[in-house]
Amino acid sequence: MSETTATQLPQIHPIPEGLAERAALLGGPEGTLTDEQIRGFVAEQLATADLDGKSVCLILPDGTRNVPLPKVLPAIHEALAGRAASVTVLIALGTHAAMSPGAIDVLLGATERGAAATYPGWTVVNHAWDDPAQIADLGEISAARIAELTGGLLTDVPMRVQINRLVVESDVNLVVGPVFPHEVVGFSGGNKYFFPGCSVHDVIDISHWVGALITASRIIGTLGITPVRQLIDAASDLISSEKLCFTMDVAAGGAELGAIAFGDPQAAWAAMARISAQTHITYVERPYRRIVALVPEMYDDIWTGAKGFYKSEPVCADGGEVVIYAPHITEVAAMHPGLRDIGYHNIEYFTKQWDRFKDHPWGELAHSTHVTGLGTYDPETGEEKQRVRRSFATSIPQEVCEAYNVPYVDPASLDIEALRNDPETLVIDHAGEVLFRLAEERQSL
To answer: What is the C-alpha separation between 179 and 274, in angstroms, rounded?
Structure first.
């Protein structure tokens, strides 16, 4: 690992001139789109796409992304019917747990008849990130190139680029997904659905660790081409098949769309990131001593529900507390048991003991820091200090929380309505969708 420290922020490049304009765009930061507008836009864009006789891999987010896919998918199904030779729907899990058939039906808006009857001719599969037979190897990005892309954060680590075989073997990849502020890449969407959405540990670990070195507090909601965005764009360049993308801005509540864009993944992402920066960042005038993040049930563990922390931590006062309130959550991360071995700590805790932790999966190290925030660690004394306290008010037992180095709060002890009336407390409903920032950090668009 480079000697670069987490306090040194590599350059964030502005979105290149004309990139967003390459995408077709409908809607904006104000208002919502009608179903008729969405259907017409999808039909118009796909009508001129080179899809006849082609095998199509339709890449979708999993159930941890709040997006009304049923507003878009029927129009895509109609546009591809009789044209595409085959359509395989690939759910971009990253390393999340596979979705059940019932959960997939809910995601696709197919609960009445099931996915097969609602979208005849489509085959729906989960990304099999843990099955080597389903993974294709696209080669390696050299350590020197990684150093260049990350601004020197990593100098001696090459990156093996591997991805779901369906992405490589299909003639056309069509990504459909929302754009939100993101703790690793700045803003999600676009090529991120390939890496890490359809990839495996090497790209996931390296990209997430680079984001952790910059720190989630600094990178989340940063509009521009971040080092991690450069990494995933470079990896995506190795995919030889055609790449198309619908990006969406999800209106508050998750049931409506405010905008939709279409083009290549980079252009469609750029067009929507500019809008998301206006709709999914809430600026407040002052920090709060206590934040209670009410995490919705779509997040069923801390691995996914942690968004409630890192999307609110930027507006927590020094020495304050962020409470992840999610009585429905019963476990930390079933798919990542290695977290129990390291617990939750700040970035210095790992970088200043690198020989101890360097062989642990970097994606888990990154997640640990995301749920801790900024802080310091003194290797001479072993003292770790956090900028803010973060607590779990969940159904995870107290002794388990303590084993992860996290304070426990009994959910029943919190009077949410009373806390709403406390001027020093910010209660966030549906935490995890909107990023909170201080007004002094407002970006120019």
So the answer is: 10
Cα 13 from Cα 91, distance rounded (Å): 30
**pLDDT classification of 6: cutoffs 50, 70, 90:** very low
Q: Which residue has the tokens 């470079």?
A: 234
6 neighbors 214 (Cβ within 8 angstroms): yes
Burial 243-277 (b: 16+ CB within 10 A, else e): bbbbbbbbbeebebbbbbbbbbbbbbbbbbbbbbb
Beta-carbon count within 10 A of 73 CB: 23
The two tokens of residue 345 are 């700590």
Are 64 and 299 spatial neighbours (Cβ–Cβ below 8 Å)? Answer: yes
For the stretch 409-435, pLDDT in tens is 999 999 999 999 999 999 999 999 899
Q: Which residues are within 8 A (CB) of 8 and not within 5 positions of it... i.e. 6 or more apart?
A: none
DSSP string, 92-133: E-TTSPPPPHHHHHHHHT-TTT-HHHHSTTEEEEE--TT-GG
Please give the Cα distance from 22 to 263 (Å, whole number).
Answer: 7
Relative to beta strand 135-141, strand 159-164 is antiparallel
Is the separation of the CB atoms in 161 and 229 below 8 Å? no
Strands 24-27 and 425-428: unpaired
DSSP letter assigned to residue 424: T
Lookup result for tokens 């993944």: 265
User: Which domains are present in the chain?
Assistant: 20-279 (3.40.50.11440), 282-441 (3.90.226.30)
Confidence at residue 5, expressed as pLDDT on a 0 to 100 scale = 44
pLDDT average, residue stretch 435-443: 93
CA distance 436 to 439: 9
Q: Rounded mean pLDDT of 284-297? A: 97
Report the chain's C-alpha Rg in angstroms: 21
- Of 204, 226, 220, 235, residue with least CA distance to 10: 226
Burial of 29 (0-12, 13-18, 19+ CB in 10 A): middle
